[in-house]
Amino acid sequence: MERMDIYSSKKKSFLLLIGSLVFVALGIWLLMEADNLTGWRASNPTLTRGIGLVSILFFGLGVFISSKRLFKSELALIITSEGINVNPKKSLLDFIKWEDIQKIEEIKIQSTRIVIIVVKNPQYWLDKETSSFRKKLMQFNINNYNSPFNISAAGLDISSDKLFETLNIYFDKNTN
What we know:
This protein is 50% helix and 20% strand. The chain contains five helices and seven strands, in the order βααβββββααβα. It starts with a strand and ends with a helix. The relative contact order is 0.16.
């Protein structure tokens, strides 16, 4: 089997952009109209302005990220006969060899399906991570899913079914 590169999805990035723009506009409206609103919102204009500001900041980040992905697809995952690189933007630190993987599972949280890459020595990957933020995320994943690595197809140019199927095909072919 040859190398398979999986990129961020332009269609999903476009939908994120539209949704984020709506919430930024709503945040601007709340910020500007906090004193003029009636009903339950009028009881605390400061809270209304705070909600508007948080909406602008949070969804403004969504506008930035989706715009960036819309104009230039980002490489999100590399699958080869040697293993998987779950973070190709960063470096080769997140390259997992097939022999280091115990199994590939799938879980569902709400309606989102997540692929869990269960590695043989999760602590090794945690100790190897240099970013304190990513290290905390990995520790959370280990505590909750017994693995530092999980992949959601939500922002990828591949369906959850196809991602899970592809990873299992590569895993089966390269570990037997």
